[in-house]
Amino acid sequence: MLLLHLSDIHFRKGEVGTAMDPNAHLRNELLLDAVAQCQKIGATPEAVLVSGDIAFGGDVDEYAYALDWLDKLCTQCGTTLSAVFTIPGNHDVVRNIAGRRLIQALHHDIKSASVAALDGVLRGLLSDPETLRLLYESIGPYNTFAGQFFCDLLPPERTIAHRDLVLNDGSILRVSGFNSAFVSSAADKAGDLFVDPACTQLIRERGVEHLVMCHHPYNWLRQGDVLRDFLNDVARIHLFGHEHTNRIEMGQDWVRIAASAAHPDRTEPGWEPGYNLIELSVDGQDGERKLNIRSHVRVWQQRPGEFRAKTHRGSDFFGQSIRLDAWTSPQPSQAPAAPTAPSVAVAADEPIKPEAARSDPMDTLRDISVRFFKLTLSQKSAIAGKLNLLEEEDANQPDFERFRRVFVRARDRGLVGDLDREIKEVAAKGR
Question: Is the domain 2-323 a CATH 3.90.180.10 member?
Fold first, then answer.
């Protein structure tokens, strides 16, 4: 499995798409390098992980540009836009909303809570319909963007974005994206941001390995020490952004990667744009399984300008093997006696892929969702209404939540094919 990891792209309104965009050349070089590296590795990315700060100021136009560029990146790397998985960063927060007096009062209540009371305060605020709306209002444009990838966030039940990917032995890599920006504003400082209590409730399961993403590193979080100790026990890979400095730490049971910024400010000391490619494979079986991790850190050098590998003891990747818990792949299901479709011959020496432990319930919907979100609001509403996929209870929900419910209902009612057909017909008429 290959993962492409980006962070802190900072698409900035007034710059991106203009003749004087200071990062146009750099973005193009990153795209060219990513394509070349995928070809060199011999794999296409299973997921494109963006650990926050997609936008610079949380503006809808910034997300529109981000969508076009990510689409181009995914296509040229051999995958699709549905591979994108995102979390919010502090630049995805609309600052003039987060700075409102009532929201700042809520931030103050959280920041002034004692260590013992903090989880209770957060649970209370994120369970109350009015306060949860206020705390998440500032990432409204982000949620609209992230909704097409089913990475949108809405307390109290959906404060973490999840996606399951299938490793080569049929076990699951569970990607969990945290929101460390819901108490973010112009007043941010190290040690004064938060994650919600759900982030310390990931559970270990046989046949499931965890990869976690959080925009802010541990030193920026009030619960940073507690979160780090917890994740060291349950998660194999930890990805961060925000500080614009690439760094890899390898423990016995985990690998922690702090990403370079794809677009750091050129006035920053040690300006060093970059991104990461992460190869994963499982060797062995039953009680002798190991997760092999190869982290390719790509950094920008000047004179001559090009992306190159950050090296480790003469190697152009950072490698680690982590012993995994015992797990046996389920036996393949028995084929039906009378297949309804022609059988396909399999070469005798062709390996049979192990059956997955479980599959992501949104997998079949993600490609359709990306196409759906390219339609206008009126077109999306008309399709949902035609298929009776909107309910009265949706009326007061934000658009991203209403349309998420449309997809869940289509899946549950066996209408995914109908929804797909309607989307294609409307899109075709718009050409």
Answer: no
